[in-house]
Amino acid sequence: MPTSSPFGQWLRQRRKERELTQAELAKQVSCAADTIKKIEAGSLKPSKQLAELLAGCLNLPVSEYPAFVDFARGVTHNPVFDPAPSAPPPQSAQSAFHAPAPITSLVGRAREVQAAVRLLRQPSKRLLTLHGPPGVGKTRLSLAIASALQSEFTHGVYFVPLAPISDMNMVLPAIVAVLRVRESPGESMLETAQAWLHDKRLLLVLDNFEQVMGAAGVVQQLLADAPGVKAMVSSRELLKLYGEVGFSVGPLEVPAVADTLRDAAIERVSAVPGG
């Protein structure tokens, strides 16, 4: 009776990390469930084509495909190639913060951060839109809120910058690219993204949504079948979706001219560091 190969053991471990059954993985790579069973048991080596499909399904970088195929086909018996787990474990929530590091400190927004965190911690609040005029710091505020919540989302926080996009049809590809989800054969990009998100617990941060408002329905579709996923949007206006919670962000307060020389007055306003 064959014993499981190193690749078979690796595949079983990665499949379980993604919480997939053998049948579910087989469906994603268009093969029979028995094929996956035999590969994991070490009695069958995948074809080059199947190995590449598995690499895509497990979100491996394209640059690693050749080494992965050699590993899967048994060409490399003691592979140096050993991809990291495809899904970060709960204890590694810090490493799953896929967002840019702020280049400035957050000044005067402590109350807003606390209020937004309280909202997103409520199970029924799954779409929070930070809305307000340009230049008030919505992006910086969203990063602070996401950072405060990152340990509460097992599968991470993902920041999707939409400022470079003006075509609403490019919003879904931008989200999929940040999530590193590969399109499955026979499925649309939306179906693949929905299936991938279905059992995840993560926070999507969609920044500068105002220029792609026609893609609001995509956000609703992604949240509809993924109860553990929440979205925080920054925009000049609301998305006007069912269940959306609007969070108005205005300019920071500034001291009155008559008070500028009075330290006590300056310390009371939020636009001054330390206030």
Q: How would you explain this protein's 3D organization?
A:
The structure is a single chain. This protein is α/β, with parallel strands linked by helices and 275 residues long. The protein has two domains: 6-73, lambda repressor-like DNA-binding domains (434 Repressor (Amino-terminal Domain)), CATH 1.10.260; 91-248, 3-Layer(aba) Sandwich (Rossmann fold). 37% of the residues lie in helices and 11% in strands. The protein is built from eleven helices and six strands. It has a six-stranded parallel sheet with strand order 1-3-4-5-2-6, with helices on both faces. α4 packs across α5. The longest helix has 12 residues, at 6-17. The radius of gyration is 23 Å and the shape is elongated. The model is unreliable at 78-95 and 263-275 (pLDDT under 50).
Shape: elongated
| Rg calc | 23 Å
Could you spell the SSE succession in H and E letters? HHHHHEHEHEHHEHEEH
- The CATH topology of the largest domain is given as Rossmann fold
Beta strand count: 6
User: What is the name of the CATH class of the largest domain?
Assistant: Alpha Beta
Largest sheet: 6 strands, parallel
Walk across the major sheet and give the strand order.
1-3-4-5-2-6
Which class best fits the helix and strand makeup? Answer: alpha/beta
* CATH-defined superfamily of the largest domain: P-loop containing nucleotide triphosphate hydrolases
* Count of all domains: 2
